[in-house]
Specification:
By secondary structure, the protein is of the alpha+beta class. The strands form three sheets. A two-stranded parallel ribbon has the order 1-2. Strands 3-4 form a two-stranded antiparallel sheet. Strands 5-6 form a two-stranded antiparallel sheet. The model has no long low-confidence stretch (mean pLDDT 88).
């Protein structure tokens, strides 16, 4: 993406699963990164081991990271808010990208 800004999705599913998912949606406007070994979900503290049969799955989370690789904003799914306020995510991403 321009100016070193990008959107990436990370999933613990296989690359083959990612390809099928993207194809099903008609393509994705961002990169989908595979974390099959669950290193990133562990390092970012969003690994879930509380669901039987799904050890190491990721908690749905959004991180906005600035150009210096500092996490500036985080949203984590909860029962009360299983989906983020996408308008708020976009506004925060614009704010961080502008350096504000």
């Amino acid at each position: 993406m321009a100016n070193g800004v990008g959107i990436y999705a990370i999933s613990v599913d296989s690359v083959f699963s990612h390809q099928a998912f993207a194809k099903e949606l008609g393509g994705l406007p961002f990169d989908l990164i595979g974390d099959f070994e669950r290193k990133m979900v562990t390092d970012y503290g969003v690994r879930r081991d509380d669901v039987a049969g799904y050890s190491g799955m990721a908690r749905r989370t959004i991180f906005i990271i600035d150009r210096a690789s500092v996490i500036r904003w985080t949203w984590v799914a909860s029962r009360e808010q299983p989906q983020p306020d996408y308008d708020a995510v976009v506004e925060e991403a614009k704010r961080v990208a502008s350096g504000a």
